[in-house]
Amino acid sequence: MTARNRMPPWHENVRLNNGREVLIRPIRPEDAVTLRAGFPLLQPDEVRQRFLHPMKELSVEQAERLTRPNTRREFALVAAEPLPPGEALVGAVARIVVDDDGQAGEFAILVSHYINGMGLGRHLMRRLVRWAKGRKLERVYGDVLESNLPMQALAASLDFRREAGESPGLVRMVLDLPKPKPRTPPIPPALIAG
Predict the structure, then answer these.
(1) Residue 39: which domain range?
(2) Looking at per-residue confidence, does 116 or 149 come out higher?
(3) Cα–Cα distance measured from residue 140 to residue 127, given in angstroms and rounded to the nearest whole number
(4) Which of 3, 76, 133, 160 could disulfide-link 175, Cβ–Cβ 3.0 to 4.6 Å?
(5) How far is CA 125 from CA 58, 83, 95, 167, 168, in A?
C-alpha cells in the first residue's frame, strides 16, 4: 500500500496491495447516504465486530451521527472511492472519540471484507493515533470482541496492550502515548551576551 500526492490535511490517495486506489479523507455529512446504502453489503460478523451487536441496517439517525462528528472531541476518517462525497462508496470508517476527562480517546475501525487484509486497518489506526498525539491525549483504547483476533493482532503489532474488557466477551486494547516534551523557553539575549 502506498500513499501519494499532496492534498488537503488528512486527505490522501492510497493504492492498496491489490492495485485499487482509495481516498482517505475526513468523513463528511454527504457520506450518510452512501453509508446507509452500503451497509447491507457488510457481512453480519463485520457489523457485530464494529458495533458489538448485530444490526440489519444503519438508521438515518445513526448515519447522521456518524457523519457529523463533534470536531472538538471526535475525529473520523473514511476510505472511499476517489469520487465526490455522496457518490463514493465507503469501504472503511475509522473514528476516535475523546473521553469526557480529555485524557484518552476510544477508537473504532470498520474495514469492509472487500478491501480487508490489504493494510488499510493499520494505516487508519496510525492516522487515529497521530490525531490523538496532536490532541496531547495520554492513551488510545478500544473495546474489541474476544473473537476478533485480527483486530487484536493489528493493535498488538502497533504496541497496544491487552487488558480485561468492561463487559464479558470484550477485551480492551490500550496504547499509552508518549507525554509531550515540555518546551524550553529561549534564553534571553541579554543573558547570553553578559
Answers:
(1) 2-178
(2) 149
(3) 12
(4) 160
(5) 23, 23, 9, 23, 25
